[in-house]
Amino acid sequence: MAETDDTWSSNANEALTVSLVTPVAGQLKTVSSFHPKFTYPIFGEEEQIFGYQNLKINLRYNASDMRPHLSTTYGKKFKAIGDTEPADIEEMLRPFLPAVAFQKSKEFEQTVTSLPENWTPPGDKVQEFNTSQKGHTFEVWRGSLGDRAVKQLVSRIQILVSLFIEGGTPLDVDEPDADRWTVFFLYTKYTDPATKRQVYMFGGYCTVYRFYLYQPPSPPASPAEKAQKDDLDLGDGNFDLSQLPCRSRISQFIIIPSFQGKGVGSHFYQAIFSQYLKHPQTVELTVEDPNEAFDDMRDLCDLSYLRTVPDFLKLRINTSIKLPRDGAVPKTIIDPEAYEKLRRKVKIAPRQFARALEMQLMSQLP
Ligand code: ACO
Question: Do 90 and 146 fall within a single domain?
């Protein structure tokens, strides 16, 4: 019987497995394994790979430093006929992974098993939290993309953006303004039952870009303002940008599938939000092109935070407001000054703040 094209096509989302492994007594143990949600940025709109039977693409990561290793196995490979050739899987994945992913399996295994036991994620630990995940403590680490170790880790995990965020664009880790990117890594730390060793396991990450707010050049209004401007001046006509007021924008936010739907993303978002609440230069925390799942999570998190703020709970519909005689809709039925003062204090962008307040007011309706 003649073999059809179908016989040689594989669904790319099923063929690709991403797994996290950790060394236990010299062997690599799989601690998490999942399929991607999307593969169209890599294998094309149809998410099909031509030219193999029983195709398995394994993207293994060392669970701590996320060193990747790619391997492919298949039953049969299609013999090229004219222009009809089997897909070159490695070449298709090459733009999405660092060179280290294509090393020999032995090199990967040796490097992973010899990683020092006191390894910690790059950057600084800024927060810890627990969820209903028994025995798991989560840690949030923060670093700048300008830091080599942060950049290396981001270059290893950037493929997750293409695999899990529809329309997501991987970051260019070599871009000149790398310092404007802050990266938050989420790790869980647990004791391996076999070795009693503390193990770091990657759980997700988030990138945040700093936009400097346009400051028109103006003479200082007061001696205090002049002193502040002089503090920023580095003496060579350049300014210390990191001290300028900015809008911080969440760009990519991912939780690995094994931790999704368990409140981990919410805790991670709240940890990041709290960092920016106390970051003096950040005027507002915004989100780039959020999807529905992220919006839902953010709405719940923002609302539960705002419900801890007494001034938010005081915002009420002003029932004593006089409606204009001409029947026009009154401009606002909430005290606009108190509203804006609070919005700025909590650093939530106008549309999101209005959404949260609407949810709050709706929840109070009899
Ligand atoms: N136990 C069980 N469920 C819980 C718990 C808990 N303790 N706490 C919250 N939940 C529920 C929430 O109510 C919510 O329910 P819903 O699914 O009915 O809305 C759901 O779990 C999700 O909340 P979390 O668990 O906190 O969120 P999660 O950890 O799954 O993270 C996220 C959400 C980031 C969207 C994650 O699913 C993900 O990474 N998805 C793939 C990538 C992605 O879409 N990223 C966002 C793109 S937009 C951007 O990057 C700006």
Answer: no
Complex prediction ipTM: 0.92
Which atom of ligand 1 sits closest to the CA of residue 287? Answer: 51
Cα-to-centroid distance, 247 and ligand 1 (Å): 24
Nearest residue to 189 via CA among 118, 108, 111? 118
- Whether 88 contacts 48, CB under 8 Å: no
Q: What is the CATH number of the domain that holds 193?
A: 3.40.630.30
Residues 6+ apart with CB under 8 A from 109: 28
Q: What is the pLDDT along the chain (366 residues), one digit of tens a residue?
A: 455 556 899 999 999 999 999 998 889 999 999 999 999 999 999 999 999 999 999 999 999 999 999 999 999 998 888 888 999 999 999 999 999 999 999 999 999 999 998 999 999 999 999 987 666 799 999 999 999 999 999 999 999 999 999 999 999 999 889 999 999 999 999 888 878 888 899 999 999 999 988 655 566 667 776 666 666 565 665 667 778 899 999 999 999 999 999 999 999 999 999 999 999 999 999 999 999 999 999 999 999 999 999 999 988 776 666 666 776 655 566 788 889 999 999 999 999 999 999 999 888 877
Q: Give residue 297 CA to ligand 1 midpoint distance, Å.
A: 6
Q: Is 294 in the pocket of ligand 1 (CB under 6 A)?
A: yes
| Ligand 1 atom having least distance to the Cα of 260 | 30
d(CA 69, CA 58): 8
Answer whether 11 contacts ligand 1 (Cβ < 6 A).
no
Minimum CA distance residue for ligand 1 atom 48 = 290
Residue 291 Cα to ligand 1 midpoint, Å, equals 11
Residue 34: give the domain boundaries. 6-113
Asked whether 291 lines ligand 1 (CB < 6 A), one says yes
Total domains, the chain? 2
Q: Are residues 17 and 51 located together in one domain of the fold?
A: yes
DSSP 125-137: EEEEEE-SSTT-E
Ligand 1 in contact with 186 (CB < 6 A)? no
- Taking the C-alpha atoms of residue 4 and residue 259, their distance in angstroms, rounded to an integer, is 40
